[in-house]
Amino acid sequence: MSELKTNKPWFKQLWPWLLISGPAVAAIGCMITIYLAVNLYADKPVRDGVVKRGLKVEQLKVEQDRK
After folding, report:
1. What residues pair up with 57 in beta bridges, in sequence order?
2. Which of the ends of the chain has fewer CB neighbours closer than 10 A, N or C?
3. Residue 12: what pLDDT?
4. Nearest in space to 57 (alpha carbons), one of 67, 46, 65
5. Is 21 left (phi over 0), alpha (psi -120 to 50) or beta?
6. Distance (Å, rounded) from C-alpha 49 to C-alpha 61?
7. What's the rounded Cα separation, in Å, for the pair 31 and 35?
8. Residue 53's pLDDT band (boundaries 50, 70, 90)?
9. Cα-flanking dihedrals φ and ψ of residue 9, to 5°?
């Protein structure tokens, strides 16, 4: 009649890992997205004084003091 049930520690049970996995995957995906946005798709200069931002190409304002 006096049987003792031994509970497993929390890290050996399935439910905490299922609850942690959703936010963990979302955080990893967010970090990958930020990395790709900054390193691959940043605004890059087309040539001196011209920058491409998205589909639009803009000329940078050059200071008049450099004559």
Report:
1. 52
2. N
3. 92
4. 46
5. alpha
6. 7
7. 6
8. confident
9. -65, 160
> ∠41-38-30 over CA atoms, to 5°?
110
Residue keyed to tokens 């790709």: 36
pTM for this structure?
A: 0.56
Which amino acid, one-letter code, is at 5?
K
40 band by pLDDT with thresholds 50, 70 and 90: confident
Q: What is the 3-state secondary structure (H, E, C) of the chain?
A: CCCCCCCCCHHHCHHHHHHHHHHHHHHHHHHHHHHHHHHCCCCEEEECCEEEECCEEEECCCCHHHC
Distance, first Cα to last Cα, the chain: 97
